[in-house]
Write a structure and sequence with these properties.
The complex is a heterodimer of chains A (197) and B (598). By secondary structure, chain A is of the alpha/beta class. Chain A is built from 8 helices and 6 strands. Chain A has a single domain (3-194), classed as Pyruvate-ferredoxin Oxidoreductase, domain 3 (3-Layer(aba) Sandwich), CATH 3.40.920.10. Chain A has a 6-stranded mixed β-sheet with strand order 2-3-1-4-5-6, with helices on both faces. In chain A, helix 2 (76-82) links the parallel strand 4 and strand 5 (86-95). The model of chain A has no long low-confidence stretch (mean pLDDT 93). In chain B, the strands form 6 sheets. Chain B has a 6-stranded parallel β-sheet with strand order 3-2-4-5-7-6, sandwiched between helices. Chain B has a 5-stranded mixed β-sheet with strand order 9-11-10-12-13, with helices on both faces. The chains are: A alpha/beta (197), B alpha/beta (598). Strand 2 of chain A pairs antiparallel with strand 8 of chain B. Chain A: GO terms for molecular function: oxidoreductase activity, acting on the aldehyde or oxo group of donors.
Chain lengths: 197, 598
């Protein structure tokens, strides 16, 4: 069955690799996949999103409003930015650690953490909220946060793939010498406890 | 054949290998960069791959190879084609022997570009055929066809993917083990030299070929009519997928004309489409290329709606939502209720210089060095350092195109005598188009200061080598051209080299250069942070912090933020320990130290 997944974060958080792994997992399953990425200037700390459209060939590479079945958000404000993309009842995994841009510290722009949390709780009551950073650090590197979130999403049943299919895809996409660390991050993510806000 | 999930740019590179390409040349530029990078990654024996100095050089290298009968590929972003337009226009007259594909990536939006120019218009301007893929899998097939077509007509062929094709991925069937097409060697003929008499003849022949190509395009699978009904919709590029999804959702009867070769448009198919419908809506991003050709061909027999009729946006990227809305209006379907979800105000995340970026130190040093001048104008250029325009640095007053900063500064100096003009240029951009500007400044006797921000890489596009790095695209060693030697050879009398993190020296060098009458230059040398291994140093804030916020307000490093009490906090994973914040702190509350154990 066709499914659309949106991954949202901030440039540098590794959304691209997460998207690549899910695309490879679709490939493993023999499903046609179409994805789209933010690459270029926005990667320097900008808002980035990856769109995956699985098992449907003649679809736009960008997920339209109200068409996403799942959201993987690496950051609360970016989760809120993607809310209009979600279908009612879409599965969500949100990392609760804020990434506040420098311009907020300079008094240009806002970061309304309380409002974002309240809205996410209201719009996605079944969402899994996690704190991925400590898990990524215990896997060996903060940069495995993307894999922790992928694990959490697989554990929460937010993805059309089994953990085994994702592990196989990971082996395809991750450098061999980093694989063990990423596998650990994935296992920690699978069992990631939900946090209360 | 194998199947793999490929990014559009990867698919284009694989297509070129499947076509037996042996020479590929390009200059990095989003969204085209990954085409050459894929060829570098595969490193197929017998295929020569280069990052050229600029797009003009790349196009000429590819043309030379095709003169000798090799199949060649040339890649760039849309604005790169402006640089390469001089050889391009003549090459359409001279032609090629081996197949030559010019892959130019357009950027509707724009996401990472100065302009929203349309390479399809350029192709039409140059009388050259253009293939416009709607998806990565189609891009792969089109590259193969474009080589055949190029050889058949002895003309270079354009492939014009857009961001949503270049950076989209899909399953692609590919074959890269194809044999390299051997070149038979250059055959001397008078027709390789352009002269007015030859140009006159060739121009006529080129015009003849337009009709032949249009009829040939009738047979290509990328051009087709789908669906049913008397309501016509013509689409080009990725808009095909937006339209397909929207039409499916609306369940509407539409006769869809998919135009895969927007110039020249297929002749018979276009006539057939026009005669099968009562009206036409054209859905294409950027210029009305298909729309104008349909208007001419329809000659008033059926209405052609699109950008001219204000039924479609003239600028920006299209989307499923835009296309669906336009279709609803066009088909007279009931308007959907606009469900606008009210979201709280969200943080804007403008791209910023990385934590530890040497450009931040260079800009800040220039700011300090020029703060007592009555007026200083800071001319920027294209690269990561364009981001120096953002607050709090505010160190980029102008930015136009590659290499323009040095020459814009000269014009400003002529017309604003009271101002000191400084031009900032990156190392890759310096080699690309910066050098002629330096020569002009020396020749004209202008009083400007050039600051070369040398981070030893082409950073914005993802760390490509250039003539100053001592490496070629495939990683082999090359002679490293020395920027100081070049500046001196161009006649610049005062040239100094500094490490921008040696902050006091950097300020001193810039102050001296600014005070020099005539052309002066400072080369600020420090490697891009993306090339650093795990940094050994880190900055930390001690108890002396007086919460003045100066470290944040002066340099805007993403690794320092205030805590709730206003005390500066260093974000350890981001910090590279560059120490610029420590230079700024008035009370020595920031120290630079070893990263303990990590």
């Amino acid at each position: 069955m066709a499914s659309s997944i949106v991954i949202a974060g901030v440039g540098g958080q590794g959304t691209l690799l997460a998207s690549k792994i899910l695309a490879a997992a679709a490939g493993e399953k023999g499903l046609f996949v179409r994805t789209s990425e933010t690459i270029g200037m926005a990667q320097r700390g900008g808002s980035v999103s990856s769109h995956l459209r699985i098992d449907a060939k003649e679809l736009s590479p960008i997920i339209p409003m109200h068409h996403a079945d799942a959201l993987l958000a690496f950051e609360p404000a970016e989760a809120v930015r993607m809310l209009p993309k979600l279908k009612p009842g879409a599965k969500c995994v949100v990392d609760t650690d804020k990434v506040v841009p420098t311009n907020v510290a300079l008094g240009r722009g806002v970061y309304l953490a309380e409002e974002y949390i309240a809205l996410l709780k209201e719009k996605c009551p079944a969402a899994l909220f996690i704190k991925g950073a400590p898990l990524a650090l215990s896997a060996g590197d903060i940069r495995t946060l993307n894999i922790v979130i992928l694990g959490a999403a697989a554990g929460a049943g937010a993805l059309p793939f089994t953990p085994r299919e994702i592990r196989a895809a990971m082996a395809e996409c991750v450098k061999p010498k980093l694989l063990a660390m990423n596998e650990k991050a994935f296992e920690l993510g699978l069992k990631a406890p939900g946090v209360r806000w | 054949m194998s199947v793999k999930v490929c990014m559009g740019n990867e698919a284009i590179a694989l297509g070129a290998l499947a076509a037996g390409v042996s020479v590929a040349a390009g200059y990095p530029g989003t969204p085209s960069t990954e085409i050459i990078e894929t060829l570098v990654g595969i490193h197929k024996p017998g295929v020569s791959v280069q990052w050229s100095t600029n797009e003009k050089a790349a196009l000429e290298v590819a043309a030379g190879a095709a003169y000798a009968g090799a199949r060649s590929l040339c890649t760039m972003k849309q604005v790169g084609l402006n640089v390469a337009s001089d050889p391009l226009m003549s090459l359409s007259y001279i032609g090629v022997k081996g197949g030559m594909v010019i892959a130019v990536a357009d950027d509707p939006g724009p996401w990472s570009s100065q302009t929203e120019q349309d390479t399809r218009s350029f192709a039409k301007h140059a009388n050259l055929p253009v293939f416009d893929p709607s998806s990565p899998e189609e891009a792969y097939m089109m590259v193969l066809s474009a080589y055949e077509f190029s050889e058949k007509y002895s003309l270079p062929a354009f492939l014009r993917p857009t961001t949503r094709v270049c950076h989209a991925s899909a399953d692609v069937d590919f074959d890269i083990d194809a044999e390299i097409k051997k070149s038979d060697g250059f055959e001397k003929r008078p027709e390789w030299c352009i002269f007015p008499a030859l140009s006159y003849r060739r121009h006529g022949e080129l015009e003849e070929k337009q009709g032949e190509m249009a009829r040939d395009f009738d047979k290509m699978p990328y051009n087709r009519i789908e669906g049913c009904g008397r309501k016509g919709v013509a689409v080009s590029g990725v808009s095909y997928l937006y339209a397909k999804e929207a039409i499916a959702e609306l369940g509407a009867d539409v006769l869809l004309y998919k135009v895969g070769t927007p110039y020249p448009m297929p002749e018979r198919l276009t006539k057939k489409f026009i005669s099968s419908v009562d009206s036409i809506l054209v859905v294409e991003e950027l210029d009305p290329v298909v729309e104008e050709q349909l208007l001419i061909e329809a000659a008033g027999r059926v209405p052609v709606l699109g950008k001219r009729s204000c039924d479609m946006p003239k600028n920006g990227e299209y989307s499923f939502e835009i296309v669906k809305k336009a279709l609803i209006k066009y088909l007279g379907l009931p308007q959907e209720k606009e469900e606008r979800e009210e979201l709280p105000q969200l943080p804007v995340r403008p791209p910023v210089l990385c934590a530890g970026c040497p450009h931040r130190a260079s800009f800040y040093a220039a700011k300090v060095a020029t703060k007592d001048l009555k007026k200083a104008i800071y001319c920027g250029d294209i690269g990561c350092y364009t981001l120096g325009n953002a607050a709090p640095l505010n160190m980029v007053d102008t930015c136009l195109c590659m290499g323009a900063g040095i020459t814009i500064a000269q014009g400003l100096a002529l017309a604003d005598a009271g101002a000191k003009c400084l031009a900032f240029i990156g190392d890759s951009t310096f080699f690309h188009t910066g050098i002629p500007g330096v020569i002009n400044a020396v020749y004209q006797g202008t009083d400007i200061t050039v600051i070369v921000l040398d981070n030893r890489t082409t950073a914005m596009t993802g760390q490509q080598p250039h003539p100053g790095t001592g490496k070629r695209a495939l990683g082999d060693d090359a002679p490293a051209l020395d920027i100081e030697t070049i500046l001196r050879a161009c006649g610049v009398k005062l040239v100094s080299r500094v490490n921008p993190f040696d902050f006091e020296s950097a300020v001193g060098a810039i102050r001296e250069a600014v005070g020099f009458a005539g052309v002066s230059a400072v080369i600020a040398e420090a490697p891009c942070v993306a090339q650093l291994k795990k940094p050994a140093a880190i900055c930390f804030v001690n108890d002396k912090c007086i919460k003045c916020g100066r470290c944040i307000k002066e340099i805007g490093c993403p690794a320092i933020t205030p805590d709730e009490a206003g005390r500066a906090v260093v974000n350890a994973p981001l910090c590279t320990g560059c120490g610029l914040c420590a230079c700024v702190c008035p009370v020595s509350a920031i120290e630079r130290g070893e990263r303990n154990g990590k």
